[in-house]
Input
Amino acid sequence: MTERTRVARRLYRLLLRAWPRSYRDAYGAEMEDAFMALLRLEGERAGGLGRARAWAGAVLDAGISGPGARVRFGSNQGWGGDTMGTLWADIRYAVRSLKRRPVFAATAVLTIAVGIGANSAVFTVVNGFMVQPLPYEEPHELVSLFAGNPEQGYSGTDVNPADAADWGARSTSLEDVAVLEETAFNWTGGDVPEQLAALRVTTNFLSLIGWQPALGRDFLPEEDAEGGDASVILMDGFWERRFARDRSILGTTLILDGETVTIVGVMPPDFLYYDMRPDLLRPWGVDVSLVPRGGHYAEALGRMASGVTIDATREELEAIARELEAEHPENAGWTVEVISLKTNVVGPIAAAASVVLMGAVGFILLMACVNVANLLLARAGSRNREVAVRAALGAGRGRIMRQLLTESVLLAMVGGALGLVGAVWGYKAIVAGLPPTLPPVFTFEMDGSVLSFTAFITVGAAVLFGILPAVRTTSDLGSTLRDAGRAGTSRGASRFGSALVILQTAMAVVLLVGGSLLMKSVTEMQNRDFGFRPENVLTARIALPEQEYDSREASTVYWTTLTDRVRALPGVLEAGTTQSHPLMGSNWGRTIRVEGQDVADDRGRRVRLTLASPGLFEAIGFELSAGRVFTDADDFEGQRVAIVNESFVERYLGPDDDPLQQTILSGETFRAPIVGVVRNAIERAVDADPEPSLYLPIAQQDVRTRSLVIRTNQDPTTFVSRMQEAVWSIDGDIPVSRVQTMTSLVRDRVGGFAIIGQLMGIFAVLSLILGAVGIYGVTAYAAGQRRSEIGVRLAMGAERTDVVRMVVREGARRAAVGIVIGLVLATAMGGAIQGILVGVAPRDPVILGTVTAVITAVSLFGLWLPARRASRVDPVRALTGEG
Amino acid sequence: MTLKPHWFHILLALADKDLHGTAIMEEVLERTDGQLRLWPGKLYGALHELTDADLIVEVDPPDGAPTERGKRRFYSITAAGHARLREDVDRLAGLVRVAHAKGAGGLA
Output
């Protein structure tokens, strides 16, 4: 038995105490075994989360079945004889006593509702991302495979199909590997030409993830061979959109890029391959194991054999990659990276955000519990008399504590129910704010896990805020009555209050710092200087079919004509074309050398590559800092030329080198002098830093699929149809796809960060309110406890301002301690969220300073209000203990 | 009266062999693809109730079955339990027939 199992057994035995002893004696050992088996199975299925769910379920089970068994077996142990009867009595009594103090009850319920609601809402979303399995067969066995080249700094790169085929064929850890490539085909023959998004797949793809067409058949193994791509399987969306779900299309043909293909199947509507939204699937049309090595352009998906771990798979595949390095010179330096499909789909941002947001709402709930505990504690003072009377009438301590805890549980349950209602609205608001670029495989709903989680934290909250006040109230039953319910000024109570204030202040600091950092980060991102001007820019993707435009010349003529026609449209300021526009998500790169530099360095000279037509720089709004932009003279026959960005100059050129005197080399023959330098632009992603970039004239390369980029003098959306008409005026069969303004592209890309920032902002404000209320509550309570002392001081001639100062000073010391602890914690947290911060340091001094100032101000206000009230007591009444 | 879902699944687990509690839990978890977790309290509560209702009965462990030093109790379905299970299965089968007739469910 491992240490872990031993601890688990011991913990479960504690839970077993919910059942009556006789029942435990009869079934306890078997229940323990059953739970251990369940824990193991859940752990195997879903790892740590599965085990957490098993524990949550076991706690609930104990909470429901345990007392149930006590009732049925009429046990006389533990909770006493007529359990149901006393329970009802307790509940009735609790309801009555809460009704007597509606303001107290409402405050407590609302506070708890806010805490639980925030947790349930965020957990619903996190559950959708992290807990729910992906909609594939045995999804935990699926892994994403990437190529990596540590020496050249590549990681998470697309794979070479032949490499991937070898990984699958030689590995025993992997049962099967599918190779995919996103591509597009021009479909002609419909009313309007359309560019279809397609996925080239090996024919095992669907069976590997455990899906099959709803209509027709899956691809056949023989379709993996040369020419096997004459069949396609349609996605439901495309089938609905263009064929109105007509079942008779099976066996009919489509013309894709001039080739005739047969529709052999249609996928079910709920089929999704995570972030891809293709219109159809088509086999590769070649045996992928025979394609040339060296090129990295495909995706690979593997299924691990049952029971094999991801580490073992990684180890085996890395060994195979080393074999391939030895066999193929092109593979030198290349290895394989293995991550679970789930990790790949969820991505690092959502995973980090889940942790940060769950942490934040956890703090909110803790603060809410602290406030309610504080309320109960304050109320405990005024209840001493009632409790003492009950004790004098013969109620034992356990009996009275049970009564008090029933009240707490009742408060928590009403609060939890209210919170759950709010959470429905809350999680829908969060989901609505998620960026449209999110892979559609995630489902967000209040399922069993969310409800169990909510029930679990509700019970947890009740225990957390109920137990200490209950212990405190019942700790000294005898003396309370003797003192005629006057004071209850136990030192312990005020020490407890101080601890609460320190804890709350610290948590408020952490949440405010976290919220401010993330909000500032989002603002930075939105207002970031992208190095180009996104306003009034329209972009579209256009693909020229190879059949009709079979030469570089034909394609160049087409693109020049199109750019000229678009430029001629009224309102268009400039137009240009490129193989990929900024933030589009493409990541073309090259390794180059600079003439005259040590050749040994050239492995590290990696650049981002953009091919640009004349007019593109002006259309996007790149700013030139030296030299010139590309012109019509930089055509295929002209001298090869290059433009680089400032980051390139900084990284790859010497401090005294004039960039315009340098020449770029690549491969055996490529040679291009640098003719211009542009300012750095953010091109890869909104949270990326500028990287060394190289721009080459697009006319000197052969690029058929391009982005058309248009700068207009007004709202670019009004140009969409005019742009389409310009395209179709040249060739009516060319589709225009992904039409989007640059501003909306930026907004979509920032979207995911924006929702995290907004949520953290809301939580920061909540924490400030809860913290202020908490400080006020504790101070008011402590000051109330000292009424007689304050009365004496006033009677002895102290000024009211002295009293205020005294009360405030004491509280200020606690707040200061809380702030210091909070700052330390916030600094630690800053490191943890660094990965999702842009343009702001995790220890931003302005934010730390401002938060300290705000918390100090709020604390002082929370101290001053009750201090002032305390100073206004009538000494006579305070001393006589009245009113 | 339809059987409670977890009663149904326990009876189904016992339909063809005698099992102990943990094995019932594992069988049901496997069969429902991890969806129905019989928490220990719920499981043993149900076994107790099913025994009271004479739908199952405690039996001696099958020959050679590991009993974990005698702490494992084995259960067997009774004739009444079989009858009750069959009733429910027939009702479900009827529902499936109606569903198919209405064209619901897969592309049959």
